[in-house]
Amino acid sequence: MAHDHHEPEPRHGHQHGTEIDWNEQGPLLESQAELFTPVYERVMAWLGREVTEPGLIVDAGSGPGVVSCLFAEAFPGARVVAVDSAAPLLERARARAARQGVADRFDTIAGELPDVLDELDYPADLLWASRSLHHLGDQRAALAAFAERLAPGGTLALLEGGLPSRFLPRDIGIGRPGLQARLDALEEDWFARMRADLPGSVAETEDWPALLTAAGLKHNRTRTFLLDLPAPTPDRARSYVAAHLTRLRDGFGDALDSEDRATLDRLLDPSDPASVHVRPDVFVLGAYTVHTAVRPG
Q1: Domains assigned to the chain
Q2: pLDDT tens-digit readout, 61-92
Q3: I want to staple 163 with a disulfide (CB 3.0 to 4.6 A). Which of 175, 186, 287, 294 is the partner?
Q4: Is the pLDDT at 10 greater than 90, yes or no?
């Protein structure tokens, strides 16, 4: 099961339908995950105070392996297994592991979550699922399956929720103020359709600590981590903002009203002085929530 592949924003893939081609997004997924590295490093420092010397870390829905490799660096005694349905993305993950010198304790497994986890050689001490769960139809059943793959005392860490990212002030001097709030509403509609279209989709109240408890796990903890790249933001962040807004513009189609589409066109035109490529007020601010729980020993 492929997913947002650790890039906390955009929160969901965007196309005219709800199908997502993760393979073609590989380079973009890598560059975005690299931009969010400060968030993941803080998450891992937090996890490291609970999960001491893990033998096996599983990245469930790893994408191109940026975060998988960060886990290998943060926990040098651990074997890391990146799991994803998109084989080309796992090829990228293996190449990254080789470049970073962790290939000797880095493996990949291709297949659909959660059943593919049956291929693990032994239970996980830490299972990380970053916005992969919401791409599974029955999230409650998937969490129970994740919990079953934990060793006694093992930790499940779930990145779900948080807040929509912000890139621009409410009033940007062109178009109607509040553009990003309107895009958020369209994104929520898309997400509802995506969830409804999933095989075996089950509506679920998104109370993640309660769902972790229902899966038989204990000692719930929750913490939210910020990514704060203030204006003037570096070129890599501008590229991320441009890519994100491009997907929204192209993915929402006729759902965008004509004025907001015209505003996005200007924001994405490198020759326009109002574009995100050059305007001085572009920033990246996001909040990403991680929930953890432990399998009783």
Answers
A1: 23-294 (3.40.50.150)
A2: 999 999 999 999 999 999 999 999 999 999 99
A3: 287
A4: no
